[in-house]
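#help-structures
NK: newbie question, is this the right format to request a structure? protein is Cysteine-rich receptor-like protein kinase 43 isoform X1
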Amino acid sequence: MTKSKSFVQNLIKQLRFGSSRDRQGEDDLEEIAAKEQKLIQFETLVEATNNFHPNNKLGQGGFGPVYKGKLKDGRVIAVKKLSLYSKQGRKEFMTEAKLLARVQHRNVVNLLGYCVHGSEKLLVYEYVMNESLDKLLFTESSRRGELDWKRRYDIIFGIARGLQYLHVDSHNVIIHRDIKASNILLDDKWVPKIADFGMARLFPEDQTHVNTRVAGTNGYMAPEYVMHGHLSAKADVFSFGVLVLELISGQRNSSFTSFMDAENLLDWAYKLYKKGRSLEIMDPTLASSADPDQVTMCIQIGLLCTQGDPHLRPTMPRVVLILSKRPGNLEEPTRPGIPGSRYRRSRRTSASSSIVGTSGTSGASDSYALTTNTTGTITATATATATANEVASSSSPISRRYDNRGKRPIEG
């Protein structure tokens, strides 16, 4: 038996949670990890982090604390240390270990290895020097000025390419489910890397969507996902569109300060777009570096990605093509989706070449048990027969029950 094979069997033995869903994919993980040889000794990580010294702590998430370390070969690493009391973290550990074992892309964070030592369970990543995007974008510090327009455009483009890889080019179709500013890391060359795959889902190749428990972050989740648990790649596209508009405006969608009686950042951007005044949402710090045509194009892309009807949102390969080719004419976006609102399928045909449709069933039956934690994230158990033609009306009891703070998704 190989060293890696023995490690994975030990990992799986210690991570049996009693749920049949938790045990799904264990055979796949064993097979993948045996090939990838990604075992790192616990003693190596103790030495690299100075015994997980508080001075080396980078942050704390639902998974557990994250520490900075340095290996003997000079590589700087980030070590996610599973909290011993976190059921959520155990689920995330298995999910990340499985999904990232074979993922290799410039715009996706690189998982270097795994470690299990008694009750200690750790994931080891490359260290990304400039930390997360939200720490630079949503701050009044001098560092915000480092995000000039060229860097923001490159970040938009890099995230788009990372999502194209996950949705189309990776070994399995992966839906991230939690694309947001705090899950985008920036390296020393400002290359964006999609991180935190604890909520991600493998997507069946023969299905257009799946119905699942809702878990995500306020302000980034697509309305059909919030209202019905209806998950497809278009949910990630919606989150990407929100992030594009946040990068351009420098404002959080979830804590948006109202302008023009707009409900949120998306609504504000759309109203200005319809008046031919899109550039008014631009972060004032970009005035000296922005390319107005490029900014206008990106605003339109953001609005196309956040349309209420998921069938009208472009795919990520289409977004990458638009960003690389800078076409003269784009489709006209329809109103952005807002959880609790109703949409109707558009009859327009001009956009059909850029949209991949998905089938649905007529009618919907929904039952929700929704909680909102103090960090502003949403957990809901959804039993749904999803419809592709409409989302629940604004009278839905969950349409407005969430606050504006925090970052981390938590499943029940």
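mod (FA): yep, format's fine, and the tokens are attached above. The chain has two domains: 3-126, 134-385.
NK: thank you!
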